[in-house]
Design goal:
By secondary structure, the chain is an alpha+beta fold. It is built from 14 helices and 16 strands. α4 crosses α7, α4 packs across α14 and α6 packs across α8. The longest helix has 23 residues. The protein is globular, with a radius of gyration of 27 Å. The chain has two domains: 105 residues, Beta Barrel (OB fold (Dihydrolipoamide Acetyltransferase, E2P)), CATH 2.40.50.140; 312 residues, BirA Bifunctional Protein, domain 2. Bound molecules: 4-amino-1,4-dioxobutan-2-aminium adenosine-5'-monophosphate (4AD) and magnesium ion. Magnesium ion binds next to β15. The site of magnesium ion has 2 residues, from β15.
Length: 483
């Protein structure tokens, strides 16, 4: 059979010798017409293939170039060279696909992340991106394992919707109407969406939460894990127009239960990767350490990657209220020396400089901030009872992570119909179109809570990478939709 191959990772970890194998992969380097470093993506470690001198004709030798794909059959033997325990003495080498060394963009040297972003279709073939995307895969698997082991139902919420779950209006429209001005119009000149594909105005989802809540009202515990779209024009290292989000929604949970679930979840994901992707994390730890060395001393991070991850799994997250957070900022030497660009007062939507100060300078660990002002949060969050006049808060919680900022946003939901309706009216959210959502509160409403974890922000945190474009295979950002 063509494909009776052994994966390089399995071969390198088995330590067995003196048996025949077939391996397939891509050439990373070819030294002295004798040593091929072959990689098949199962691990960053290459398999050394030894070509006996004189066993290949010159024409074949010339075709063994960086990037070319090979099928090699040979004997596994103990390696005399440094760096590997076993290697393969080639008996036959078949070139599956040539790679013109002059034209192949990835040379056997270090390339910048910026360069590789432009070559995102090839960057999986590098050590850095090999490690990142194996870790991303492991994290996705761990998400399902965590919720499955706790009896949650994985609910597939729709990608096309007619509602704005976050009420922030940052949506991509979905339509089949012509955009050349000939779309059917209403009498007042606005577009008549009743003639559109779905008979109404539709968009790509910004969150699966509202549909998730419908599921939680029957299954008790659900989670979603899917692509999410935001047309916010934020060209930052933390924002994507298309990102993946995990959103658990749990009936009978209050804000405190919600925080416990989120903290357990994040710690579980990190532990899973530390147990199962040791090699890749060690590689990324080294990579980060080298990058840090290029920075001036005062800008370097205090912890290495592995140290940071261990710290997060071993310590409880700090929990403070928004009001306490604002007080810490106001009392800080940073504030007194006027070092914040944006002003601080009760009611502000904290800027990333404020969040980073709390997490990186003050607490030096992940922080859960609760009970934000109602005015800066979404309509579905539960109004807290007994607030000071003018200082109405909601049972919200954001988790802020070192180097990332907000990684989780969530809340206890407003389960009281009249309060929810009043809040929606205040915020000009059309209740008639959301009648299906309000039914959750009409028929057997219960206290419930949930949150959203930005998957790419989690991958950033675990890999120690700093730009979100480097942890999703093909990034969609303002003015960029390549590949
Ligand atoms: O805080 P957000 O907007 O919350 C929600 O969407 C809620 N419906 C979640 C819920 O309660 N079920 O988004 C949640 C998380 C953020 O904390 C952040 O990690 C991530 O999603 N996120 C983004 N990640 C990448 N690019 C963007 N543009 C993001 N916007 C939010
Ligand atoms: Mg948020």
């Amino acid at each position: 059979m063509f494909n009776k191959r052994v994966k390089i990772k399995a071969l390198l970890t088995a330590d067995q010798t003196n048996y025949q194998v077939t391996v397939m992969g891509w050439v990373r380097t070819f030294r002295n017409n004798q040593f091929i470093a072959l990689n098949d993506g199962s691990t960053n470690h290459n398999l050394q293939i030894v070509v006996a001198l004189g066993s290949l004709d010159d024409a074949t030798i010339k075709r063994i170039t960086t990037g070319a794909s090979l099928k090699v059959t040979g004997t596994v033997v103990a390696s005399l060279g440094k760096g590997q325990k076993v290697e393969v003495n080639a008996e036959t080498i078949e070139i599956l696909g040539d790679s013109d060394a002059e034209k192949f963009p990835l040379q056997p040297k270090k390339h910048s992340l910026e360069f590789l972003r432009e070559k995102a279709h090839l960057r999986f073939k590098t050590n850095t991106f090999g490690a990142i995307f194996r870790v991303r895969h492991a994290l996705a698997f761990a998400v399902h394992q965590f919720f499955n082991s706790r009896g949650f139902v994985y609910l597939h919420t729709p990608i096309i919707t007619a509602s704005d779950a976050e009420g922030a209006g940052e949506m991509f429209r979905v339509t089949t109407l012509p955009i050349d001005g000939t779309a059917p119009k209403n009498e007042d000149g606005s577009i008549n969406y009743s003639e559109d594909f779905f008979g109404k105005s539709t968009n790509l989802t910004v969150s699966g939460q509202l549909e998730g809540e419908l599921g939680a009202m029957a299954f008790s515990d659900i989670y979603t894990f899917g692509p999410t779209f935001r047309a916010e024009n934020s060209n930052t290292a933390r924002h994507l127009a298309e990102f993946w989000m995990i959103e658990p929604e749990v009936a009978f949970n209050d804000l405190e239960d919600n925080m416990d679930l989120a903290e357990d979840f994040i710690q579980y994901l990190i532990k899973y990767v530390m147990d199962n992707n040791k090699e890749d994390l060690e590689f990324l730890d080294q990579r980060l350490a080298e990058e840090e060395k290029q920075k001036p001393q005062n800008e370097r991070q205090e912890f290495g990657l592995l140290e940071k991850l261990r710290f997060v799994t071993d310590n409880k997250f700090e929990r403070i209220t928004y009001t306490e957070a604002i007080q810490i900022l106001l009392d800080s030497p940073h504030y007194k020396k006027k070092k914040f660009k944006y002003d601080v007062s009760w009611g502000i939507d904290m800027q990333s400089e404020h969040e980073r100060y709390l997490v990186e300078k003050h607490f030096k660990k992940p922080v859960i901030v609760t009970n934000y002002p109602a005015a800066i949060k979404a309509f579905y969050m539960r109004l807290n009872d007994g607030c000071e006049p003018g200082k109405q808060t909601v049972a919200a919680m954001d988790i802020l992570a070192p180097g990332i900022g907000e990684i989780v946003g969530g809340s206890q939901r407003e389960e009281r119909l009249e309060k929810l309706e009043a809040r929606m009216a205040d915020m000009h959210i059309p209740a008639e179109e959301m009648s299906w959502y309000l039914d959750t509160r009409r028929f057997g409403t219960v206290p419930h809570a949930g949150f959203g974890l930005g998957f790419e922000r989690m991958v950033l945190f675990v890999t120690g990478m700093t730009n979100i474009r480097d942890v999703i295979p093909f990034a969609r950002t303002p003015k960029n939709c390549e590949f």
